[in-house]
Design goal:
single chain, alpha+beta, 38% helix, 3 helices, YaeB-like fold, four-stranded antiparallel sheet
């Protein structure tokens, strides 16, 4: 998990934090569980929807890398900002 995603997870208030942590556990299953959709224009990049929160992650070499956790509207903006580098 990316350091920024870990920091954001620590700041999420309960009970939403418990729901997000449970959803992260679902990503470890084979196949990953949850409301998962691929992101348009991004190869091997997906979003997992948990209520008003979104988890953006990548699959590479059979591993899952969580890059962003944020509120619905902000997660996509931050993801796109990071890809401009």
């Amino acid at each position: 998990m990316h350091r920024n995603a870990e920091k954001y997870l620590d700041r999420i208030p309960e009970p939403a934090k418990s729901h997000v942590e449970e959803a992260l556990g679902g990503l470890e299953e084979e196949p990953p569980q949850g409301d998962i959709r691929p992101l348009a224009g991004q190869q091997d990049t997906f979003r997992l929807k948990i209520g008003g929160y979104r988890i953006i992650y990548r699959c590479k070499n059979d591993r899952i890398y969580v890059t962003h956790i944020d509120l619905r509207g902000q997660a996509y903006k931050k993801k796109n900002r990071g890809n401009r580098r």
